[in-house]
From TrEMBL, chains A, B:
<dbReference type="GO" id="GO:0046872">
    <property type="term" value="F:metal ion binding"/>
</dbReference>
<keyword id="KW-0862">Zinc</keyword>
<keyword id="KW-0378">Hydrolase</keyword>
<feature type="binding site">
    <location>
        <position position="284"/>
    </location>
    <ligand>
        <name>Zn(2+)</name>
    </ligand>
</feature>
<feature type="active site" description="Proton donor/acceptor">
    <location>
        <position position="281"/>
    </location>
</feature>
<dbReference type="GO" id="GO:0004181">
    <property type="term" value="F:metallocarboxypeptidase activity"/>
</dbReference>
<comment type="function">
    <text>Broad specificity carboxypetidase that releases amino acids sequentially from the C-terminus, including neutral, aromatic, polar and basic residues.</text>
</comment>
<dbReference type="InterPro" id="IPR001333">
    <property type="entry name" value="Peptidase_M32_Taq"/>
</dbReference>
<protein>
    <recommendedName>
        <fullName>Metal-dependent carboxypeptidase</fullName>
        <ecNumber>3.4.17.19</ecNumber>
    </recommendedName>
</protein>
<keyword id="KW-0482">Metalloprotease</keyword>
<keyword id="KW-0121">Carboxypeptidase</keyword>
<comment type="similarity">
    <text>Belongs to the peptidase M32 family.</text>
</comment>
<feature type="region of interest" description="Disordered">
    <location>
        <begin position="1"/>
        <end position="24"/>
    </location>
</feature>
<dbReference type="GO" id="GO:0006508">
    <property type="term" value="P:proteolysis"/>
</dbReference>
<dbReference type="Pfam" id="PF02074">
    <property type="entry name" value="Peptidase_M32"/>
</dbReference>
<feature type="compositionally biased region" description="Low complexity">
    <location>
        <begin position="1"/>
        <end position="20"/>
    </location>
</feature>
<feature type="binding site">
    <location>
        <position position="310"/>
    </location>
    <ligand>
        <name>Zn(2+)</name>
    </ligand>
</feature>
Length: 516, 516
């Protein structure tokens, strides 16, 4: 019950103001795509609110409401009427052509899986997810194994239904990284592995490069959040007029339009989690902010892929916020808000501390050097599971062996090993590689951007305005109108490779750990 | 972009677990009504969020998203398929019978207005709303007059399309107070007016009953909100497990299920605004909380009418929170959190201060004695406008004359007179009476409840548990399955009348102002 005393009516939506008259076939299609987009935005808002403010008792009902919104938007998008509108669409401009192209691709994919299969998959994922929560809690891989077998079986069937040229994995990774193939991932990962392992050995031999105790010095919660948010605005352009920061158990970015962006953070005694987590989500946020308004309320209005998205979050979090110029600029502000943290330090010492390389069991806590090994391990294992060359029952041993080979560690239990990630329980096979693809792309993009002297000069003095302009022009504005491969070549002049990232690691950590 | 590292999947909705097998006709209908209900809940959440947290730039897009959700839920509910499901429904239980009955009534009403008419009305309301904002800002009734004429014309046409027996006004008030008629409102209002005006004269003659300066003594913002929220929980049962309090420009209550209730408040130097505003919204909230789970995701799951809703908010705000036993109980807590407010006061002095009777120009600031005159004035005027016995151009004079007659005041300008309310600009003709109907019902219900000695004893000591149980049983749980008239007779033993309210005013204010 909301009474008119209490709330103002919703403001009127601005009328569409096309510069040229819209073709009738495009007008009907635009209306339909707009409805689907609005339903998905509403669902995103309900999900965001579930993680931030929702009272606990509301969880089951919220789940039902989200299921209804997802069902209705899927129904609307896959309806024969939508198929007809797409078939008859006569795009008149390059913008309209891109919208129709992306929408047709999405529609073809969305209609390729029979409803019965999707329902079976949803049920199985739900059961697997709950089984995983229990299994992880009790570190009992055996309880999760049958569910993982079923997930893999469903993944194989999904790949067959979707179709593929080379490898069934290609049909799966396409959901996250359109056009990517397992063979390409294998090639680039092998290169990266062979050239990073020796570096990691040398770093481990070098010993500590800083006093890492500063990373848990007292930093009041509100001051952490305020500082992270202020710098997200000052350095990276995230503003309260179109964005908010709130707290949630796991940090994430979500947006309901390019004018309505949310990031969340969490506060821990290990204060870099809040700061760098915020700037990571800021990278995601500024990507969505930069998508051009011309794609609003169409399926083009989103990041090109998970990998490209991750390239932006990682760029802000690691390449910029974990750089020496960044801390030379923001160290005085940190001193003001957290004197207990900075006592006896200078910018250089802080820079070395927040770039600690420390092989660990947990992927989400990993540093720039070791992170990709966590990803490679998972990619290799899920590929073998999908192919059937690795049995699910042998997975924990295989996991532990690879962990030993890559990072020299053995998990004390499966909770801190094979059961640590949510992805497989949610049926997300083919997702992991995008994390490392994003890391690689982040450096490749930043180097391309710095060919522009204004960008390079800005980055060297932690003035990121010119870089942000470059990113909007070469990455953000295109939304999904370019595939990740098209975008990479167009923006950097070459396909995605490991070279820039490997050179970056050697340069940066060679300096920090004095490896010359 | 939300990645699985970042958010847990939505929890599964609990499977429906009917005690008896559901008839196929009811199952399909239930699914459809559930979808409509979920869409409306999502829209409510988007509206709530718009008033609380939304970044300012997002307003136009949010408006579009809300329009899409409203359009889709209307489309789904009025679709011929829904009509077919309703026609063929074979309810097997009293619960199902009530659902089908209410849904058929809503469906008949929703399909009676042609789409072209609704679109014309929406456009006109939108224009009128913007014209009203400007007109109020410049206190320029002339600029709003043509829009009000159009609103009245549309209201007359709407009444004709909806149909009525006695008076076109009946077709309009039915949207807010189902089954109510203008003639009934006139009768009860006349009675109320004749018996309250002499009381008001005596109060005005009596002079001040307390030091009203205490109402603006310093009370820190956070302490106001915390105290209001804590007492809402302790006295009235509103709990964080199913509800939240946030801030907004205008306080309101909203809910997305009975497990997901939101109230908002605002903080002002006049601190009773925050406290009593919170407890007002708490009354609305506890009504929605008390609606029985059996009506979940059906159109029965809401308050019976705006009047019945207001009876609950007014009961909590005025009959309980502005009572002497309430302050005898909570004064010590207030002393703790706001010593500057309570200095030199006791519970009785505070009780008299917060019950100041003070004729004023603005309805939303009015006290228990004068509030209803504001409502009567509006009702009389909108009835005359609808009938055509009053011309729009003569409205300001008519307004000011009635204001003088009822409250002895003349507005210095139309902004503080005829232009003060949003309702007419939003096409809400027939809405105002529900405020006073709610006031009357609040006392009639409380007196009926206190025939139970446990309730009476509880109210006398500000222990509201027994009263809340009585309200759940006799009012809340029924949702919309009873009409307001049915509910009133069933709960109080007689139809709605002015007697209890008039007696209450004489008793309470006779004491405060020592009128004996």
């Amino acid at each position: 019950m909301t009474t008119p005393d209490q709330t103002a009516p919703a403001p009127t939506a601005p009328a569409a103001s096309p510069t040229t008259p819209v073709h009738p076939s495009m007008e009907a299609l635009g209306r339909r795509l707009g409805q689907v987009s609005d339903l998905r935005a509403a669902a995103s808002l309900l999900s965001w609110e579930q993680e931030t403010f929702m009272p606990e008792e509301a969880a089951p009902v919220r789940g039902q409401q989200l299921a209804t919104l997802a069902g209705l938007s899927h129904e609307l998008f896959t309806a024969p009427e939508t198929g007809g509108l797409l078939a008859q669409a006569q795009p008149q401009t390059p913008t309209e052509e891109a919208v129709v192209c992306v929408a047709r691709r999405d529609h073809a994919k969305a209609t390729r899986l029979p409803t019965a299969f999707v329902e079976e998959q949803t049920r199985a994922q739900n059961e697997a997810h709950h089984a995983w929560i229990d299994a992880r809690r009790h570190s009992d891989f055996g309880a999760f194994a049958p569910h993982l077998e079923r997930m893999m079986d469903l993944a194989r069937r999904q790949a067959d239904l979707m179709g593929f040229d080379e490898h069934p994995y290609d049909a799966l990774i396409d959901d996250y990284e359109p056009g990517m193939r397992a063979s390409q991932v294998q090639a680039v990962f092998a290169d990266l592995r062979d050239r990073t392992l020796p570096l990691l050995d040398r770093i481990r031999a070098a010993g500590d490069a800083a006093d890492y105790g500063v990373l848990t010095r007292p930093f009041p919660a509100q001051a952490q959040k305020d500082f992270a948010w202020r710098v997200a605005g000052e350095a990276f352009g995230l503003q309260g007029s179109f964005a908010r920061q709130d707290e949630s158990a796991h940090p994430f970015q979500s947006n309901f339009s390019r004018s309505d962006i949310r990031i969340t953070t969490r506060v821990e005694p290990y204060w870099p989690a809040c700061l760098f987590g915020t700037w990571h989500e800021t990278g995601h946020a500024m990507y969505e902010r930069g998508v051009h308004e011309r794609w609003a309320r169409t399926p083009v209005s989103a990041g090109a892929s998970l990998g490209v998205h991750e390239s932006q979050s990682r760029m802000f979090e690691n390449l910029l916020a974990r750089s020496l110029p960044f801390w030379e600029r923001y160290f005085p502000q940190l001193q003001e808000v957290a004197p207990a943290v900075t006592e006896g330090l200078d910018a250089g010492a802080l820079y070395r501390a927040v770039n600690r390389v420390n092989p660990s069991l947990i992927r989400v806590e990993a540093d720039e050097v070791t992170y990709n090994f966590h990803v490679m391990l998972r990619f290799e294992l899920e590929l073998a599971l999908l192919e059937g060359t690795l049995a699910v029952r042998d997975l924990p041993d295989a996991w532990n062996a690879k962990m030993q080979a890559y990072l020299g560690l053995t998990p004390p239990d499966d909770a801190r090993g094979v059961l640590q990630d949510i992805h497989w329980s949610a049926g997300l096979i083919g997702y992991f590689p995008t994390y490392t693809l994003g890391n690689l792309l982040s450096v490749q993009l930043l180097e391309a951007a710095q060919r522009d002297p204004a960008v390079a000069q800005g980055v060297a003095s932690a003035e990121y305005g010119p870089l942000r302009e470059w990113l909007v022009e070469h990455v953000h504005q295109h939304g999904r109108s370019l595939t990740p491969a098209e975008l990479t070549v167009q923006a950097t002049g070459q396909p995605l490779g490991a070279d820039p990232y490997v050179a970056y690691l050697h340069r940066k950590y060679g300096g920090i750990y004095r490896l010359d």
